[in-house]
Amino acid sequence: MLNYLQRLGRSLMLPVAVLPIMALLLGIGYAFDPAGWGTGSQIGGFLITAGGAIINNLAILFAVGVALGMSNDRDGSAALAGIVAYLMVTELLSVESISMLTGVEIEEVPGAFAQIGNVFIGMI
User: Fold this and answer.
1) At what angle do helices 42-56 and 19-32 cross, to 10 degrees?
2) pLDDT in tens, 72-93
3) Which end of the chain is more exposed for a tag (fewer CB within 10 A), N or C?
4) What's the domain count of the chain?
């Protein structure tokens, strides 16, 4: 059990390693353009957009990183399997899918299903 938890901890380090560069991109970008819309500085808008690309797709990064880190041979097929598993779970548990599968209106589906694409689901 301890060996499994150590492998899981090591595999989490792969996606966590990109967080400092994301923070630097966002921090420097907001220093150039505090409004964050690129109107004050095009360089600031560029850096904010680059950092935002990482933070907006953090769940996918964790899905790939954990799958790759937990595989025995660290093969790229494990990373592909991680992406496929993440996409299947998020699509199957989307509001539209739940509405179709249960036969209820979209407005009646619990709001938690709208937030299913998060980092925790990526790690699972």
Assistant:
1) 150
2) 888 889 999 999 999 999 999 9
3) N
4) 2
Both 89 and 100 in a single domain?
A: yes
Other CB atoms closer than 10 Å to residue 15's CB: what's the count?
Answer: 23
Question: By the 8 A CB rule, do 67 and 79 touch?
Answer: yes
Are 2 and 63 contained in the same domain?
no
Angle, helix 42-56 to helix 58-70, in steps of 10 degrees: 50
The pair of structure tokens assigned to 24 is 């630097």
Pair (46, 1) in one structural domain: yes
44 and 64 fall within a common domain? no
52 and 62 inside one domain: no
H-run or E-run covering 49: helix 42-56
Q: What is the pTM of this model?
A: 0.84
Residue range of the domain that includes 36: 1-56
Q: Which two tokens stand for residue 94?
A: 């989307």
The H or E element spanning position 74 is none
